[in-house]
From TrEMBL:
Classification lineage: Bacteria, Pseudomonadati, Pseudomonadota, Alphaproteobacteria, Rhodobacterales
Any GO BP annotation: amino acid biosynthetic process
Originating organism: Gemmobacter aquaticus
Cross-referenced CDD domains: D-AAT_like (cd01558)
UniProt protein name: Probable branched-chain-amino-acid aminotransferase
Keywords, ordered alphabetically: Amino-acid biosynthesis, Aminotransferase, Branched-chain amino acid biosynthesis, Pyridoxal phosphate, Transferase
Pathway entry: Amino-acid biosynthesis; L-leucine biosynthesis; L-leucine from 3-methyl-2-oxobutanoate: step 4/4; Amino-acid biosynthesis; L-isoleucine biosynthesis; L-isoleucine from 2-oxobutanoate: step 4/4; Amino-acid biosynthesis; L-valine biosynthesis; L-valine from pyruvate: step 4/4
Amino acid sequence: MSRTVYVNGDYVPEAEAKISVFDRGFLMADGVYEVTSVLDGKLIDFDGHCKRLARSLSELEISNPHSDDEWLAIHRELVARNDIVDGMVYLQVTRGNPGDRDFAYPPADTAPTVVLFTQSKPGLAESPVAKTGWKVISIPDIRWGRRDIKTVQLLYPSMGKMAAKKAGVDDAWLVEDGFVTEGTSNNAYIVKGNRIITRALSSDILHGITRAAVLRFAREAQMEVEERNFTIDEAKSADEAFITSASAFVMPVVEVDGAPVGTGTVGRVATRLREIYLEEMRKAAV
Ligand code: PDD
């Protein structure tokens, strides 16, 4: 399959896409990204991703190369050119190519590098694993302190995913000072009765766009939401657990470090939230 990808203003076959070896994204992970899911050819929660992109760029003093309307037009064009029904659009903006390697930022007028590509995932929302749930292990969270910025420094999350795979499970929950921060590429939750517990927003975690929507829907459905730290032991003794992300939506978690969560099967709250999330977000998709 040859995709059409977007590089700095051009739509090109993936084999012809080129980025400089001096690009700050390549040399220094000096860039940010967004992943927006596509269902039925439409973008899910696009506005939320655009807002977070603007914030990530501003925190790193990289100028935002496009208006929200321009970003939307590029996303839609890529979805159309690649015939994406279900899948994702990946977007990356780096500090660009200063023409050499230097720790200091290049002059502010250095053009950022902009890359977007699509990933086709037919049936993304009907993933069979949502019926059986994920198993997770815990690992120490040794990432940097600005996890609220969605940077492309993904080596440790990637190592975490590999540790999970080697352990025969689906993902790793990251633990710092005894408390769960988040999953390798998702936000983490436990459920006790009618109460959903998840870490409060800070620079310790990524401010998930899916998290914001799911907590809003949970409150609207009269569920209680408690934004506070929780431990792995608390997760093991919870009734349910789940994660959220733009690509997994709401995914039940049925096992933590080898111990079943609740009955060890997919729970009622996670199932309901997944249904509500998909239904509402499909309606609001652009
Ligand atoms: N990851 N926490 C981390 C560390 C993440 O990387 C992600 C998203 C999330 C969930 O954020 P959102 O709901 O906005 O997707 C939380 C994306 C999906 C990725 O890296 O592919």
